[in-house]
Write a structure and sequence with these properties.
The chain is built from one helix and eight strands. It is mainly beta. Strands 1-8-7-3-4-5-6-2 form an eight-stranded mixed β-sheet, with no helix packed on it. The structure holds iron/sulfur cluster. The site of iron/sulfur cluster has 7 residues, from loops.
Length: 136
């Protein structure tokens, strides 16, 4: 199951958490626009960030953006993602899944054989704890 994609971050100075949409006419708050094939020329300021598969040379956007994103096939309208400063886009919540969960840390000490997300020895608590607090 694909939960992560990446591209080239531009003006992403802190993690951005919001719902994704492909509707560039949307007026809702806290949304990230997925722009495939072309970039709309207006209304971009209402989005917290823009994600596109186009290259950064094609168009500079005056918004936090991630260019040259490898794929959006796993993202549907309303999914919640975190856009990181390094261009990695992690899916936090999938609207079509009944198995969403929120991690408070990945520092599990059980080491189960079947674990699909092996524990990492990294202090991720401040990052995960502060995700909802970053200003836009
Ligand atoms: S499945 Fe993975 S995350 Fe869950 S308890 Fe086991 S090692 Fe920890």
């Amino acid at each position: 199951m694909l939960l992560k994609t990446r591209g080239i971050a531009y003006r992403v100075y802190e993690p951005i958490v919001a719902r994704v949409t492909r509707n560039y006419l949307s007026k809702e708050q806290n949304q990230i626009l997925i722009a495939e094939a072309n970039l709309p020329s207006s209304n971009l300021k209402s989005f917290d960030a823009i994600l596109t598969n186009l290259s950064i040379e094609d168009s500079k956007i005056d918004r936090p953006s991630v260019y040259s994103v490898q794929t959006f096939q796993h993202l549907v309208e309303g999914d919640i993602v975190v856009v990181n400063t390094d261009g990695i886009i992690n899916t936090l919540y999938r609207v079509n899944s009944h198995q969403n969960f929120l991690l408070t840390t990945e520092r599990c000490n059980s080491n189960c054989l079947m674990c699909s997300q092996p524990p990492r020895d990294k202090n991720d608590i401040p990052y995960l704890f502060n995700l909802g607090d970053y200003k836009r």
